[in-house]
Amino acid sequence: MSLHIFSKQTKIDFVGMRHYAYGLSALLILVGLITIFMNGGLRYGVDFAGGAAVQLQFEKPVADEDIKKSLAEMELPGLAIQQYGEDGRDYLVRFSTPNLTSEGIRSNILSSLEKSFAGNPASIQRLEMVGPKVGADLRNAALEAMYFAILLITVYISGRFEQRWMIAALMAAVLGSAMYVMGFLGMDMVYRVIGALALTLLISWKLKLNYALGAIVGLLHDVLITLGLLAMMGKEIDLNIIAALMTLVGYSLNDTIIVYDRIRENLQNQPEDNPAPLADIINLSVNQTLGRTIMTSATTLIAALSLTILGGGAIHDFALTMSLGVFIGTFSSVFVSNPILLLLGDTRQYMVARKKVEYERPGEHGVV
After folding, report:
1. Where does the sequence pass through the membrane (predicted)?
2. For residues 61 and 80, what is the distance between their CA atoms, to the nearest angstrom?
């Protein structure tokens, strides 16, 4: 027996609410960008900025200000202290790496803490060090990986829904080459990715790769809003958050493809002489897949929230990013990616693009 969330198919006018959704998205993106600008850019963690991360555990609860005072004599640049758990015993200490080895950092920190907390011994559970050059290379590699993921998604969407594999593959080859040319000219990776993304959107629009353009805009929407919210929370961007963002890109894309598939099926079922308006087809498709969308989002959100609350400090930022992204990805799949199809075309345009090729089976008319 199948599971149904709704006893009857819903008839919600999602397309009619798209302008309100666009306004909300624009507001969240704007507030996030302003926050990032006021903070002087994104705050990078040890993985990308370079430095050391030391996980401490005390025998008894302590206050973070007391820890900062005890480490003041070491003059650690960029010192930041973050509490783990709820018992006040576990802390993560981050700072830019001084001219010390890992053993030197370990001994100096324990020595300073021993002076200030004589009756409350501390132990180092974990010590990680990343040099500034390695951190910069990791940051560039993460940005490049995210861009090429989006570029390959463009090829896949264009081929699957518009049967334009060759054009999309050629575009990807040109844009991939442009990335390396910009690198050869010495451009910073951030500007290379921004320029390549702008070219991807422009070329997709010029070539009328509407499905791919809708998916890309939805993915950029998810990443920008999620980064903005993390910046407002004061989170540092590290490899855990990048991994969560890449996971969200795949999650949001999967939801978008499900709706795109239903839109394609409903377009194929339209009569040639009098097809329904594209807005009605999009609304019908979203309502037909709404139960699946809610079930998938709810189960993913339960797992992500459980990890956020109970998973501990090591995985907290990953789980928090996932929790935020589930909401944002579901929102974009319904209110951003699909209505863009309406902005870029009409029913007959998509029917022509998806018109089936009639093949004659061998022997169908007596000739093999």
Report:
1. 20-38, 141-158, 165-183, 212-233, 294-316, 322-345
2. 18
pLDDT tens readout for residues 27-77: 999 999 999 889 888 888 777 777 788 888 888 888 878 888 888 877 777
Token pair 């799949």 is found at 333
Q: Judging by DSSP bridges, how do beta strands 90-95 and 80-84 pair with one another?
A: antiparallel
- The SS3 of residue 274 is coil
Query: Is 3's pLDDT higher than 60?
Result: no
Mean of pLDDT values over 260-276: 86
Given a cut of 80, whether residue 287 has pLDDT beyond it is yes
What integer pLDDT is reported at residue 34 of this predicted model? 93
Q: How far are the Cα atoms of 25, 129, 299, 316 from residue 45, in angstroms, in the given order?
A: 27, 11, 30, 14
pLDDT at 326: 92
Closest to 319 in 3D by CA, of 308, 332, 330, 333: 308
Give the residue from 232, 228, 233 showing the smallest Cα distance to 29.
228
Q: Which residues contact 174 (CB under 8 A, 6 or more apart)?
A: none
The alpha carbon of residue 271 and the mean position of all alpha carbons in its chain are separated, in whole angstroms, by: 39
Residue 126 bridge partners (DSSP): 55
Which domains are assigned to the chain? 15-40+134-353 (1.20.1640.10), 51-130 (3.30.70.100)
As a whole number of Å, the end-to-end CA separation of the chain is 45
> Would you state the pLDDT for residue 7?
59
Dist. CA 237–CA 226, nearest whole Å: 11
The candidate with the shortest Cα–Cα distance to 264, out of 148, 152, 160, is 160
Q: What does the DSSP 8-state code read for residue 16?
A: G
What's the pLDDT at 354?
56
> Which H or E element spans position 107?
helix 102-116
